[in-house]
Amino acid sequence: MTAQVLRGTTRPATARSGIDRCLALLGEELTAYVAGAATVGEFHRWRADRRRRREIEERLQGAVEVADTFARANRLGAAAGWLREVGAAGVADRSPARLLREATGEAVKRVLDAAERFTHR
After folding, report:
1. Residue 100: phi, psi to the nearest 5?
2. Under DSSP, is residue 10 helix (H, G, I), strand (E, B) or coil?
3. Rounded to two decimals, what is the model's pTM?
4. Which domain of life does the UniProt lineage start with (predicted)?
5. Which of 58, 72, 114, 115 has its CA 20 to 30 A from that of 78?
6. How would DSSP label each residue in 11-57?
7. pLDDT tens digit string along 48-84?
């Protein structure tokens, strides 16, 4: 079996998609929000559309990496709350989830760095 390396973790290449992992780790509402959907229903419609699915997979990659960071620190249960906490990533009026939703390369890096700092306190 081949392995895929993602930010310091090894997982089987047959592992669930980023969408499925986000749903399992963060729940429907937070996953839909980070994906950019206005509602859970809209998120599920996007998920069924092959073209949109690839786009939301890419957008959710940052959330998967945050969840992995929390899991490595044995703090996965705190990940969803941290993602919702305004200012947790160092931007006073934005939550990490919103920064991931707005997804610029720099914002994703900021969120991942903040998650690392938080989990190693």
Report:
1. -65, -40
2. strand
3. 0.82
4. Bacteria
5. 58
6. EETTPPPHHHHHHHHH-HHHHHHHHT-SSHHHHHHHHHSHHHHHHHH
7. 998 898 888 888 999 999 999 999 999 999 999 999 9
